[in-house]
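Fill in residues.
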Protein backbone atom coordinates (compact mmCIF):
# COMPACT_ATOMS: atom_id res chain seq x y z
CA UNK A 1 0.00 0.00 0.00
CA UNK A 2 2.82 2.38 0.90
CA UNK A 3 4.52 1.62 -2.43
CA UNK A 4 1.30 2.36 -4.31
CA UNK A 5 0.89 5.62 -2.41
CA UNK A 6 4.45 6.69 -3.22
CA UNK A 7 3.91 5.79 -6.89
CA UNK A 8 0.73 7.84 -7.02
CA UNK A 9 2.52 10.82 -5.51
CA UNK A 10 5.24 10.48 -8.09
CA UNK A 11 2.69 10.49 -10.92
CA UNK A 12 0.94 13.58 -9.49
CA UNK A 13 4.25 15.37 -8.97
CA UNK A 14 5.37 14.51 -12.46
CA UNK A 15 2.15 15.88 -13.95
CA UNK A 16 2.48 19.06 -11.91
CA UNK A 17 6.07 19.53 -13.04
CA UNK A 18 5.06 18.97 -16.66
CA UNK A 19 2.30 21.56 -16.39
CA UNK A 20 4.66 24.00 -14.69
CA UNK A 21 7.28 23.48 -17.38
CA UNK A 22 4.68 24.03 -20.08
CA UNK A 23 3.59 27.34 -18.57
CA UNK A 24 7.19 28.50 -18.04
CA UNK A 25 8.04 28.20 -21.72
CA UNK A 26 8.70 31.06 -24.11
CA UNK A 27 6.36 31.38 -27.08
CA UNK A 28 6.03 33.88 -29.91
CA UNK A 29 3.09 35.87 -31.23
CA UNK A 30 3.49 37.56 -34.60
CA UNK A 31 2.03 40.93 -35.50
CA UNK A 32 2.55 44.06 -37.60
CA UNK A 33 5.33 46.63 -36.96
CA UNK A 34 5.41 49.37 -34.30
CA UNK A 35 3.18 52.32 -35.26
CA UNK A 36 0.32 50.01 -36.15
CA UNK A 37 -2.53 49.59 -33.70
CA UNK A 38 -2.20 45.82 -34.10
CA UNK A 39 1.25 45.98 -32.54
CA UNK A 40 0.00 47.90 -29.50
CA UNK A 41 -2.92 45.49 -29.05
CA UNK A 42 -0.62 42.48 -29.35
CA UNK A 43 1.63 43.94 -26.66
CA UNK A 44 -1.41 44.16 -24.37
CA UNK A 45 -2.30 40.52 -24.99
CA UNK A 46 1.27 39.33 -24.42
CA UNK A 47 1.49 41.29 -21.16
CA UNK A 48 -1.75 39.84 -19.78
CA UNK A 49 -0.88 36.29 -20.84
CA UNK A 50 2.52 36.55 -19.17
CA UNK A 51 1.15 38.02 -15.94
CA UNK A 52 -1.70 35.53 -15.65
CA UNK A 53 -0.01 32.30 -16.75
CA UNK A 54 3.74 32.76 -16.47
CA UNK A 55 4.08 31.99 -20.17
CA UNK A 56 6.76 34.23 -21.67
CA UNK A 57 5.08 35.59 -24.81
CA UNK A 58 7.36 37.64 -27.05
CA UNK A 59 6.36 39.70 -30.07
CA UNK A 60 7.84 39.10 -33.50
CA UNK A 61 6.90 41.68 -36.13
CA UNK A 62 6.44 41.48 -39.89
CA UNK A 63 5.57 44.09 -42.50
CA UNK A 64 2.59 42.18 -43.88
CA UNK A 65 -0.24 39.96 -42.61
CA UNK A 66 0.88 37.21 -45.00
CA UNK A 67 4.35 37.09 -43.47
CA UNK A 68 2.93 37.23 -39.93
CA UNK A 69 0.60 34.30 -40.58
CA UNK A 70 3.28 32.50 -42.57
CA UNK A 71 5.42 32.44 -39.43
CA UNK A 72 2.70 30.40 -37.70
CA UNK A 73 2.26 28.14 -40.72
CA UNK A 74 6.02 27.44 -40.69
CA UNK A 75 6.16 26.88 -36.93
CA UNK A 76 8.29 29.98 -36.32
CA UNK A 77 5.58 31.46 -34.06
CA UNK A 78 2.88 29.76 -32.05
CA UNK A 79 0.32 32.55 -32.35
CA UNK A 80 -0.53 35.55 -34.50
CA UNK A 81 -2.76 38.55 -33.81
CA UNK A 82 -4.55 39.01 -37.10
CA UNK A 83 -7.83 40.15 -38.62
CA UNK A 84 -10.46 37.52 -39.39
CA UNK A 85 -10.53 38.46 -43.07
CA UNK A 86 -6.80 37.84 -43.44
CA UNK A 87 -7.04 34.51 -41.62
CA UNK A 88 -10.04 33.66 -43.81
CA UNK A 89 -8.35 34.31 -47.17
CA UNK A 90 -5.22 32.51 -45.98
CA UNK A 91 -7.12 29.37 -45.00
CA UNK A 92 -9.30 29.53 -48.13
CA UNK A 93 -6.22 29.99 -50.35
CA UNK A 94 -7.49 33.22 -51.90
CA UNK A 95 -5.80 36.43 -53.11
CA UNK A 96 -2.05 36.30 -52.42
CA UNK A 97 -2.51 32.79 -50.97
CA UNK A 98 -3.97 31.41 -54.22
CA UNK A 99 -2.79 27.82 -54.63
CA UNK A 100 -0.93 27.80 -51.31
CA UNK A 101 -3.44 27.96 -48.43
CA UNK A 102 -2.15 28.31 -44.88
CA UNK A 103 -3.86 25.14 -43.74
CA UNK A 104 -2.30 25.07 -40.27
CA UNK A 105 -4.02 28.26 -39.08
CA UNK A 106 -6.74 27.77 -36.47
CA UNK A 107 -8.58 30.31 -34.36
CA UNK A 108 -7.93 30.69 -30.65
CA UNK A 109 -9.90 33.87 -29.83
CA UNK A 110 -12.13 36.28 -31.74
CA UNK A 111 -11.04 39.19 -29.60
CA UNK A 112 -13.17 42.18 -30.64
CA UNK A 113 -14.62 44.05 -33.61
CA UNK A 114 -12.13 46.33 -35.35
CA UNK A 115 -12.80 49.47 -37.39
CA UNK A 116 -11.01 50.93 -40.41
CA UNK A 117 -11.84 53.97 -42.50
CA UNK A 118 -10.73 56.48 -45.12
CA UNK A 119 -9.14 59.61 -43.76
CA UNK A 120 -8.94 62.99 -45.48
CA UNK A 121 -7.84 66.41 -44.35
CA UNK A 122 -10.49 68.33 -42.45
CA UNK A 123 -10.22 71.22 -44.92
CA UNK A 124 -10.05 69.06 -48.07
CA UNK A 125 -13.67 69.57 -49.13
CA UNK A 126 -14.01 65.78 -49.50
CA UNK A 127 -17.22 64.83 -47.71
CA UNK A 128 -18.07 61.32 -48.92
CA UNK A 129 -16.51 58.19 -50.41
CA UNK A 130 -18.07 59.13 -53.76
CA UNK A 131 -15.94 62.29 -53.71
CA UNK A 132 -12.79 60.14 -53.90
CA UNK A 133 -13.31 59.55 -57.61
CA UNK A 134 -10.27 60.96 -59.41
CA UNK A 135 -8.51 61.82 -56.13
CA UNK A 136 -4.94 60.77 -55.28
CA UNK A 137 -5.28 57.45 -53.45
CA UNK A 138 -2.75 54.70 -52.61
CA UNK A 139 -2.53 51.66 -54.88
CA UNK A 140 -0.15 48.74 -55.28
CA UNK A 141 0.30 47.85 -51.62
CA UNK A 142 3.23 45.52 -52.40
CA UNK A 143 4.12 45.10 -48.73
CA UNK A 144 0.52 45.01 -47.51
CA UNK A 145 -1.77 43.26 -50.03
CA UNK A 146 -4.69 43.51 -47.61
CA UNK A 147 -4.69 47.20 -48.48
CA UNK A 148 -6.13 46.36 -51.90
CA UNK A 149 -9.08 44.46 -50.40
CA UNK A 150 -9.68 47.08 -47.69
CA UNK A 151 -9.61 49.93 -50.20
CA UNK A 152 -11.80 48.25 -52.79
CA UNK A 153 -14.34 47.21 -50.13
CA UNK A 154 -14.66 50.75 -48.78
CA UNK A 155 -14.79 52.30 -52.26
CA UNK A 156 -17.43 49.73 -53.29
CA UNK A 157 -19.88 51.30 -50.85
CA UNK A 158 -20.03 54.22 -53.31
CA UNK A 159 -19.87 52.09 -56.46
CA UNK A 160 -16.15 52.80 -56.95
CA UNK A 161 -12.92 50.81 -57.02
CA UNK A 162 -9.22 51.65 -57.00
CA UNK A 163 -9.42 52.00 -60.78
CA UNK A 164 -11.60 55.09 -60.29
CA UNK A 165 -8.94 56.94 -58.28
CA UNK A 166 -5.75 58.74 -59.30
CA UNK A 167 -3.54 55.93 -58.04
CA UNK A 168 -0.28 56.65 -56.23
CA UNK A 169 1.87 53.53 -55.60
CA UNK A 170 2.55 52.68 -51.97
CA UNK A 171 4.14 49.83 -50.06
CA UNK A 172 2.18 49.65 -46.82
CA UNK A 173 -0.07 51.49 -44.37
CA UNK A 174 2.66 53.47 -42.64
CA UNK A 175 4.19 54.62 -45.93
CA UNK A 176 0.77 55.69 -47.21
CA UNK A 177 0.08 57.59 -43.97
CA UNK A 178 3.40 59.42 -44.31
CA UNK A 179 2.64 60.27 -47.95
CA UNK A 180 -0.77 61.59 -46.89
CA UNK A 181 0.81 63.74 -44.17
CA UNK A 182 3.32 65.08 -46.69
CA UNK A 183 0.55 66.10 -49.10
CA UNK A 184 1.23 63.45 -51.74
CA UNK A 185 -2.18 61.78 -51.21
CA UNK A 186 -5.67 63.22 -50.86
CA UNK A 187 -6.89 60.24 -48.83
CA UNK A 188 -5.75 56.90 -47.46
CA UNK A 189 -6.98 54.07 -45.28
CA UNK A 190 -5.97 53.31 -41.70
CA UNK A 191 -7.22 51.74 -38.49
CA UNK A 192 -9.22 54.09 -36.31
CA UNK A 193 -7.47 54.67 -32.99
CA UNK A 194 -3.99 53.76 -34.21
CA UNK A 195 -1.09 55.74 -32.72
CA UNK A 196 -0.16 56.85 -36.24
CA UNK A 197 -3.51 58.61 -36.61
CA UNK A 198 -2.84 60.80 -33.58
CA UNK A 199 0.48 61.78 -35.17
CA UNK A 200 -1.07 62.60 -38.56
CA UNK A 201 -3.98 64.46 -36.98
CA UNK A 202 -1.59 66.63 -34.97
CA UNK A 203 0.29 67.46 -38.17
CA UNK A 204 -2.49 68.20 -40.68
CA UNK A 205 -5.91 67.66 -39.04
CA UNK A 206 -7.92 64.66 -40.24
CA UNK A 207 -11.43 63.31 -40.42
CA UNK A 208 -12.72 59.85 -41.33
CA UNK A 209 -15.40 59.72 -44.02
CA UNK A 210 -18.73 58.19 -43.04
CA UNK A 211 -19.68 55.20 -45.19
CA UNK A 212 -23.07 54.45 -46.69
CA UNK A 213 -24.77 51.90 -44.42
CA UNK A 214 -27.49 50.77 -46.83
CA UNK A 215 -28.07 47.10 -47.56
CA UNK A 216 -26.71 47.63 -51.06
CA UNK A 217 -23.50 49.16 -49.69
CA UNK A 218 -23.03 46.36 -47.15
CA UNK A 219 -23.50 43.72 -49.84
CA UNK A 220 -20.96 45.46 -52.09
CA UNK A 221 -18.44 45.45 -49.24
CA UNK A 222 -19.07 41.79 -48.32
CA UNK A 223 -18.60 40.80 -51.97
CA UNK A 224 -14.92 41.71 -51.58
CA UNK A 225 -14.53 39.63 -48.40
CA UNK A 226 -17.41 38.10 -46.40
CA UNK A 227 -15.94 39.28 -43.08
CA UNK A 228 -16.40 42.98 -43.95
CA UNK A 229 -19.38 45.00 -42.77
CA UNK A 230 -20.32 48.60 -41.84
CA UNK A 231 -20.73 49.76 -38.24
CA UNK A 232 -21.25 53.07 -36.48
CA UNK A 233 -18.58 54.65 -34.27
CA UNK A 234 -19.23 57.42 -31.75
CA UNK A 235 -16.51 59.97 -30.96
CA UNK A 236 -14.08 58.99 -28.18
CA UNK A 237 -11.05 60.87 -26.84
CA UNK A 238 -8.52 58.38 -28.27
CA UNK A 239 -10.09 58.25 -31.77
CA UNK A 240 -8.46 60.99 -33.82
CA UNK A 241 -10.53 61.97 -36.84
CA UNK A 242 -13.88 60.81 -35.43
CA UNK A 243 -15.55 64.06 -34.40
CA UNK A 244 -19.16 62.97 -35.03
CA UNK A 245 -20.90 59.60 -35.21
CA UNK A 246 -19.31 57.95 -38.24
CA UNK A 247 -19.97 54.76 -40.23
CA UNK A 248 -16.77 52.77 -40.67
CA UNK A 249 -15.70 49.41 -42.04
CA UNK A 250 -15.74 46.70 -39.38
CA UNK A 251 -14.32 43.22 -39.17
CA UNK A 252 -12.80 41.33 -36.23
CA UNK A 253 -9.37 40.92 -34.69
CA UNK A 254 -8.42 37.40 -33.73
CA UNK A 255 -5.68 35.40 -32.12
CA UNK A 256 -4.88 32.44 -34.34
CA UNK A 257 -2.67 29.49 -33.44
CA UNK A 258 -0.86 26.80 -35.35
CA UNK A 259 -2.67 23.48 -35.55
CA UNK A 260 0.41 21.77 -34.07
CA UNK A 261 0.59 24.06 -31.03
CA UNK A 262 0.11 22.20 -27.74
CA UNK A 263 -3.55 22.03 -26.67
CA UNK A 264 -2.81 22.96 -23.06
CA UNK A 265 -0.83 26.02 -24.15
CA UNK A 266 -3.70 27.30 -26.29
CA UNK A 267 -6.16 26.54 -23.46
CA UNK A 268 -4.15 28.67 -21.01
CA UNK A 269 -3.74 31.59 -23.43
CA UNK A 270 -7.46 31.61 -24.25
CA UNK A 271 -8.37 31.44 -20.57
CA UNK A 272 -6.11 34.39 -19.75
CA UNK A 273 -7.67 36.54 -22.47
CA UNK A 274 -11.25 35.57 -21.59
CA UNK A 275 -10.92 36.20 -17.87
CA UNK A 276 -8.94 39.44 -17.91
CA UNK A 277 -10.77 42.07 -19.95
CA UNK A 278 -10.12 44.71 -17.30
CA UNK A 279 -6.35 44.26 -17.56
CA UNK A 280 -6.52 44.32 -21.36
CA UNK A 281 -8.52 47.57 -21.30
CA UNK A 282 -5.95 49.06 -18.93
CA UNK A 283 -3.28 48.26 -21.51
CA UNK A 284 -5.27 49.72 -24.45
CA UNK A 285 -8.81 51.18 -24.61
CA UNK A 286 -9.68 49.29 -27.80
CA UNK A 287 -10.31 46.22 -25.64
CA UNK A 288 -13.44 47.95 -24.34
CA UNK A 289 -15.04 46.54 -27.49
CA UNK A 290 -14.32 42.98 -26.35
CA UNK A 291 -17.34 40.97 -25.17
CA UNK A 292 -16.03 37.92 -23.27
CA UNK A 293 -19.21 36.00 -24.08
CA UNK A 294 -18.59 36.40 -27.83
CA UNK A 295 -14.93 35.46 -28.21
CA UNK A 296 -15.86 32.01 -29.55
CA UNK A 297 -18.07 33.32 -32.36
CA UNK A 298 -17.73 31.17 -35.53
CA UNK A 299 -15.79 32.65 -38.45
CA UNK A 300 -16.26 31.72 -42.13
CA UNK A 301 -14.26 28.64 -43.16
CA UNK A 302 -11.83 28.66 -40.21
CA UNK A 303 -11.85 26.07 -37.39
CA UNK A 304 -11.07 26.75 -33.75
CA UNK A 305 -8.08 25.04 -32.13
CA UNK A 306 -8.98 22.04 -29.90
CA UNK A 307 -7.41 23.77 -26.88
CA UNK A 308 -9.67 26.78 -27.40
CA UNK A 309 -12.76 24.61 -27.87
CA UNK A 310 -11.99 22.75 -24.63
CA UNK A 311 -11.83 26.01 -22.68
CA UNK A 312 -14.94 27.48 -24.30
CA UNK A 313 -16.98 24.39 -23.51
CA UNK A 314 -15.84 24.49 -19.89
CA UNK A 315 -16.68 28.21 -19.70
CA UNK A 316 -20.11 27.61 -21.29
CA UNK A 317 -19.58 30.04 -24.18
CA UNK A 318 -18.83 27.66 -27.06
CA UNK A 319 -20.95 28.65 -30.07
CA UNK A 320 -19.91 25.89 -32.47
CA UNK A 321 -21.54 22.57 -33.18
Amino acid sequence: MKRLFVSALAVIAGAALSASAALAQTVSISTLPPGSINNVQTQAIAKVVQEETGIQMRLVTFNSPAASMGAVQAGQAEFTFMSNDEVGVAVRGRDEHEGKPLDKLQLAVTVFPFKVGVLVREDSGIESVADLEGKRFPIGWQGFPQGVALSNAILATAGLSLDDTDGVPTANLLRAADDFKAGRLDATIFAVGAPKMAEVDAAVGIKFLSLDNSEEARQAMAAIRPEYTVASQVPLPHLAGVEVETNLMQYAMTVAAGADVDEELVYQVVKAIHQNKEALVAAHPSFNAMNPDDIAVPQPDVDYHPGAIRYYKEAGIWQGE
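The beta strands are 26-31, 56-61, 79-83, 105-121, 136-140, 166-170, 187-191, 206-208, 229-233, 246-258.
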